[in-house]
Design goal:
heterotrimer, A alpha/beta, B alpha/beta, C alpha/beta, A: alpha/beta, Rossmann fold, 40% helix, 19% strand, B: alpha/beta, two-stranded antiparallel sheet, 13 helices, 17% strand, globular
Chain lengths: 378, 290, 184
């Protein structure tokens, strides 16, 4: 029975399928390798269901358009890669402060600048966290298989709606272009969270009302609520304020609505970590190399284990700290020159040695490279 | 007694004063604009033009970027969105495509629309998406205290052109028309009656409508360039510096030199983008968008 | 733990190496009930340059999607052959298109040489199906997927107007590989 639903597809295709499954009805983007397949697929699929696909004049316009569409009530998506992601940073900040749900996919390639456009990397992890200016919430998901890209894209939309915030799906060229057979769930099999709409009278509607950490429902424009949205700090009614107390509270609130829900947002895969003496923390494509290495080491009786965050931001401090307590060392393989490595070091709090395995030649980290490092601690 | 008053009233036949209270949000005024700034006049023209359509407020969305003119949406009782510098049209595009029934009006300035937002400006015109673009053109960056803009005339003084501006200016209307806008007009704050009519026509138009609204910034442009008063600026720039299309037709070329044309400069029919998209959906075999 | 079978298809951009990889991975995963993943690396060129596609076939979840120790490789150009033959394992299989690859590499693996492009052009009239002939040959040489599965996968991926041509190309591949002996 599962046979029937199995489909052989690329990571970027699974992303498009995930978006459609989650109810995405608006896509705006600008062509860029290696994310373009998402646009190509949605340009065919969205019109078939009455949705909108727009090829914009640049990535700045793309993120602004999806925020505009989201205010029109549509679940919306854009997909890009490093250079385009850089251009989107200001818009991303707007979505954070104005609390507009939307999903941004960044298929990482080599950089900085044009770099090697067809070559993979994992070097946008920190940009995904700190790219836009000002203190802001960051929710960033890092799937590692084609099937997982589907699920994590659905989850990204769900998190965006739940927390009224932009969510980033971050993966690399290898996974984006890799093909595997995946199973597409039937409608209703996977939870899809719909946007909460206000039920109060329009004159009572406060789009940024806060009571006990709850998140106010977001009305759509043109549905009677006639509210105001701005990128300036604003009061509960959405209008700009110069009140320093309100400004401080508002900034803390948009960050804390994520920080206070870390346990709900952070999901990890633990692979042989129970009795691990040597830990590996890896995400995305590097976690695939790491898993291969851990399996090989286990065959040889070495107690290696992998902690794989599916949510890289907020960072899974607790899980890393727990692992650090029990192992001699944690290895952090990543296709950059050290980004998540420093987070692991911070979260480990000196309880074990932390060692990075970095690679930026646009070839995936070879499992043997990780195996060699594990052996040093075995 | 009563009949006398009624007769008196009838005799005078004064129109009922326009009631702005339906359009101005309670408690959101005073606005931030300086004394002598023309933006308030433009705001009034816009609200009257909207009222003439007879459509409810909820049918309108006002979107803006950053700058003095971009503060307009905060004061008015519609669906309002105050966004990033230069990006109003990109936000507006997304909103319009998600909710094609909304009438979207973008209030923007010469810097916002033509410098940082120039790319979005030409591409919106190219698509002929049904958006009204009101360019409050006062030849200067007012909010950041008086730097020259893409419409500042050569020789003029600004805080970043102390030796006189050497950048040639854009002609907003020519640019809009060349980019594909299907309604292009120019008005001024001085000719407020005419502006109201133009704005109404722009709102009723289906397609991208660009209105270059010549306006004055006495605080910066006026002071730097030795205009005596806001009224003097309006006289010189808006009144004497422009000529209506109708008047112009009867004037020799030498009389038109250095003057900007006022009125509707271009109006044509071309497939509007949301209508084009609806056809695309049909072609793809999809259902009509909600 | 299960087995892991690694394949690499290499040539120049436009020769259908990525498609060849997709088809065999699809044959394995959709029609033969195994696990398979296909990945690729490519340059900025849509045509020309060295292009490669890698396929991992296993009976369990595939973690690392790139080749580490290759069981079977196809090389359609000399450049690709030179660049990518390093990782072929002992007793592995290398199939080269002798139309283009004049210098066969030496190694502790089996090298099969056949003028694939020439045959595609002369016998089927379309050089474009060289990749499908290669698929037939490599399946015949390795038996990594069944004939039925590869045929279904080929037919599912090619345009309807070219079904017969591709079917013929695949059969031709099976036949020509049947009695092919490795280079001494």
């Amino acid at each position: 029975m599962a046979e029937k639903k199995k489909k052989f597809m690329q990571g970027n295709e699974a992303c498009s399928e995930g978006a459609l499954y989650a109810g995405c009805r608006f896509y705006a983007g600008y062509p860029i390798t290696p994310s373009t397949e998402v646009a190509e697929i949605l340009s065919v699929r969205l019109p078939k269901i009455g949705g909108v696909f727009m090829q914009m004049e640049d990535e700045i316009a793309s993120i602004c358009a999806i925020i505009g569409a989201s205010l029109g009530g549509a679940k919306s998506l854009t997909a890009t890669s490093g250079p385009g992601f850089s251009l989107m940073q200001e818009g991303l900040g707007f979505a954070c402060i104005a609390e507009i749900p939307c999903v941004i996919v960044n298929v990482m390639r080599s950089g900085p600048s044009t770099g090697f456009p067809t070559g993979p990397s994992q070097s946008d992890v920190m940009q995904a966290k700190w790219g836009t200016h000002g203190d802001h919430p960051s929710v960033v998901l890092t799937p590692a298989t084609v099937q997982e890209i589907f699920y994590e894209t659905v989850r990204a939309f769900n998190l965006a709606e739940t927390y009224r915030t932009p969510v980033i799906v971050l993966y690399d060229e290898i996974i984006g272009h890799m093909r595997e057979a995946i199973t597409l769930p039937e409608a209703g099999e996977v939870e899809v969270i719909e946007r909460k709409k206000p039920t109060c009278k329009p004159e009572e509607y406060k789009p940024y009302a806060q009571s006990n950490g709850s998140i106010a429902p977001l009305a759509a424009y043109g549905e009677g609520y006639k509210f105001h949205v701005t990128g300036l700090y604003h009061a509960e009614d959405g209008f700009p304020t110069n009140n320093t107390k309100l400004i401080g509270e508002a900034n803390e609130r948009i960050v804390n609505k994520i920080n206070k829900n870390v346990d709900k947002i952070c999901i990890n895969e633990e692979f042989y970590t129970d009795d691990a003496e040597i830990g590996v923390v890896a995400y995305g494509v590097s976690s695939k190399s790491a898993k291969f290495a851990v399996k090989e080491m286990r065959k040889k009786g070495v107690k290696a284990g992998l902690l794989r965050p599916k949510t890289i931001w907020p960072f899974p401090d607790k899980a890393v700290n727990k692992l650090a307590k029990q192992v001699k060392a944690i290895l952090v393989p990543e296709m950059n020159l050290g980004q998540v490595y420093y987070e692991v070091e911070r979260a480990s709090r000196g309880q074990c040695e932390v060692k990075g395995i970095f690679k930026v030649d646009t070839e995936a980290i070879h499992p043997n490279q990780i195996i060699e490092e594990i052996k040093k601690f075995a | 007694m009563e009949t006398v008053t009624a007769a008196k009233k009838k005799k005078k036949e004064k129109p009922v004063p326009f009631d702005y209270s339906n359009y101005i949000r309670k408690g959101k005024l005073p606005h931030i604009w300086c004394p002598g700034c023309g933006h308030g006049i433009v705001l009034k023209c816009m609200l009257r033009a909207i009222a003439e359509t007879g459509r409810p407020n909820d049918d309108f969305a006002l979107v803006s970027g950053i700058g003095c003119s971009s503060r307009t949406p905060g004061y008015v009782n519609f669906n309002t969105l105050h966004t990033l510098h230069g990006r109003a049209l990109a936000f507006a595009t997304g909103l319009k495509m998600a909710k094609p029934n909304l009438k979207v009006i973008v209030t923007t300035g010469d810097g916002d629309a033509l410098a940082i937002g120039g790319n979005h400006f030409i591409h919106t015109c190219r698509r002929n998406l049904d958006i009204v673009i009101m360019v409050y053109n006062n030849f200067i960056y007012g909010m950041t205290s008086g730097q020259f803009s893409p419409t500042t005339l050569p020789g003029m003084i600004a805080t970043t052109s102390r030796y006189g501006n050497i950048d040639p200016p854009f002609d907003v209307c020519k640019m809009a028309e060349a980019a594909g806008a299907t309604f292009v007009a120019r008005g001024t704050a001085y000719h407020y009656g005419e502006l109201e009519k133009i704005l109404h026509e722009a709102i009723m138009h289906k397609g991208t409508a660009v209105i270059d609204i010549i306006d004055s910034c006495p605080t910066y442009y006026g002071r730097f360039n030795k205009f005596k008063s806001p009224a003097d600026m309006m006289e010189k720039i808006e009144k004497e510096g422009t000529v209506s299309v109708k008047q112009a037709s009867g004037l020799p070329p030498e009389k038109l030199e250095g003057k900007l044309l006022r009125g509707v400069l271009c109006k044509k029919e071309r497939l509007e983008y949301t209508e084009g998209y609806a056809k695309l959906i049909e072609k793809a075999g999809g259902s009509k968008p909600k | 733990m299960g087995y892991r079978y690694e394949m690499r298809f290499s040539g120049s951009g436009g020769q259908g190496m990525i498609l060849a990889g997709i088809i065999i991975a699809e044959a394995a995963s959709i029609y033969d009930g195994k696990m398979a993943s296909q990945s690729q690396s490519y340059g900025p060129e849509s045509r020309g340059g060295a292009s490669r596609s890698e396929v991992i076939i296993s009976d369990e979840e595939i973690d690392y999607p790139k080749a580490t120790s290759i069981d079977a490789m196809l090389a359609m150009t000399q450049e690709a052959c030179n660049k990518y033959n390093k990782d072929i394992k002992k007793d592995g299989v290398l199939l080269i298109d002798s139309t283009e690859v004049k210098n066969a590499p030496k190694g502790d693996y089996k090298v099969y040489s056949y003028p694939i492009s020439t045959v595609a052009r002369d016998e089927l009239g379309k050089i474009i199906v060289a990749n499908i002939i290669s698929l037939g040959m490599i399946v015949e040489l390795t038996k990594i997927v069944s004939h039925e599965a590869i045929e279904k996968a080929v037919l599912a991926r090619v345009p309807p107007a070219f079904l017969d041509l591709n079917k013929k190309a695949l059969q031709l591949g099976f036949e020509r590989a049947r009695d092919l002996k490795p280079l001494p």
